[in-house]
Structures are given as C-alpha cells and as structure tokens.
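Bench log. Compound arrived from synthesis this morning; before running ITC I wanted a structural hypothesis for how zinc ion sits in the protein. Inputs:
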Amino acid sequence: MDNSPEDLKVFAYLAPHPLDDDSIIEGDCLTWIPGFLNEEDEEEGLPATYRECNIKIYDEIEALTEFHFKNSIKNMWPLLSKIQFQSLQIAIDISGIINNQKNTSASYLHNKSSQIEGIYTFSLDRNLLHSYLQAKANNTVLDNYDLSVWEHELIHLLDHEEILKGTLYGLSDAPSENFKYFFLKFRQEGIAHLHYVLNGNLKIKNLDTAIKDFIVFATEKKAKLDFSKPTNQAIVEELLSGFEYYNIGPWIILDLLRDQWENIHYEMLNDCIANLKSNQPIEKETILEIIKLGLQLDSITYLKMTEKYFDKGFMPL
Ligand SMILES: [Zn+2]
C-alpha cells in the first residue's frame, strides 16, 4: 500500500506544556502570545496559565503548527513518500526554554530521531510561532522565508545519515576534523536551503560571487584556527558561527552537482544556475529533482569535490 501524506501521524505539542504537573512555566513567560491573558483567575483560584481562554490558545497553537507542517509535507511528498514514518513530532518551545537564540525558526532534532523506529522530531521556536500567530490574527500570508522553514527542516530529515556522520567531525578535538565539519555545513545547509533559493529567494545573485565569498570566508576561518593544538567546544562554535552557509551553500551545491552529473543532468543544472542569475522561475519538479541529487552527494565526495576551489593543501584531507 502506498503511503499518503494524509495518513501521517503528526503531533505538535507545547514543550513543556503549561498544564504539565511539573511545568515551571508561568504566565509572565507567555505574555508575548497575542491574546494571552496574564491574570490569575481569582474566582476559581487558578493561575493565569490555567485559565480556560489561555488553554484554548494552547490548543490553537498546536493545531496551527500541525497545519503549516503538513502543508510542507505535501510540498515535499515526492521525496518523502519512500520513508517509513511511525510519527513526526514537533516540540513547540513557547517559553524559550529549549532554544533562546534570537534568529532561529525551527530545527530538525537528528539526535532525538530514529530511522529504525521511523520517529522524527523537530522543534518550533517562538520566532516562527509568532509569525504564525500574527498572520492568523491579521489574516495575512506568511513571507517566503517563514513559509519554507519546514521544507528546509524536512530536507535535513532526508539527510539524516550524512548529518549524523558530520557531527563526528564536530565532536572531535582535532582542528583538521573540525575544519572539515565547517565545510560540511555548506553541504548540509546548502542542500536544505535549495528549496528556498531555487524558488527565487536569493541573497547572492550569481555563482561567481558565491564562489568568491566561499573562498574568502573559508580562508578567514582557517586563519583563525590553530592547527597545532586540540580544540574545544567554544572554538568549534566560533568556527561554525555565521549565516554564510545558507547564502553560499546552495550555489556551491549546484556547481558541484553540475560537475558530478555532467553527462546526465548537465543541462538541467546549467539552466538552473542561469535562470537563478537572470531571475527566471524554476519549475517545481525541477527543484525537487535537484534537491534529490543534492541529497545523493555524500559528505566525503563533497569534501573531495570542493578542493577545486582552493590551492593545493588548503583542505585538510
Ligand atoms: Zn538548516
């Protein structure tokens, strides 16, 4: 029997839920939610988080999250239909306890997911939830970025194995291994961001600029890294910081795929690079086809292929 996106079990839940017995969430953490009434219910002797009108909002947030997530599932279905799913879970971080970073929207939690069990876990941050709630309240549509967040995270899900492999390079205290991990971030985020970029959302407008930026960024990072002694977590975090992966990565992936598939898909990839540059739309099927090729570019092959941009010996391979 064929899978269908409607049959998938998607659970979005507030984490922690304000009504959990051991929940430490107080009304003061939730005042950012439009419509949240931060007043004790004196008649019933209940804290604000237990008020009926607020409980209704919790349910709405969960339903709204599932709605947006399922839309993205449908968009990505041609790539997802072969995966065995038991359940997809989304932990909604309404209190900012799980993630207090300012710029994040959502994450694929690879370490809380299991391919064998078919259980995949994500988190939704307050920034994106806020956009959801505002769009709903004002009856407006989400911007392209917010709309494509789950497509990005679902591509990470499809890339599960390579992401797991990559983390090993990050956990090592060998600078050369960490530097490989830095390069792999362009692969991971580059592939995940293809959906957004191929739909015409570009910060970098052409391949040449992306390659130039790639070389500059990598050279700067390499200069800061001391290859003569072991690293620690803080050094790795500093090495990986920045948002260039999202802007440069997709272009690098397209360029490498064009090399890799020069006998079969050259025209499709070459046209795609040209169309992006000249602001021409790319067809949905082509976008999914390219993402699929991207996911087949494994980490080791990718690392070998990126050597072409740098002087001999730059890459610690
Ligand atoms: Zn990502």
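What the model suggests: Residues 152, 156, 189, 192 surround zinc ion (CB under 6 Å). The chain has a mean pLDDT of 94.
ITC booked for Thursday regardless.
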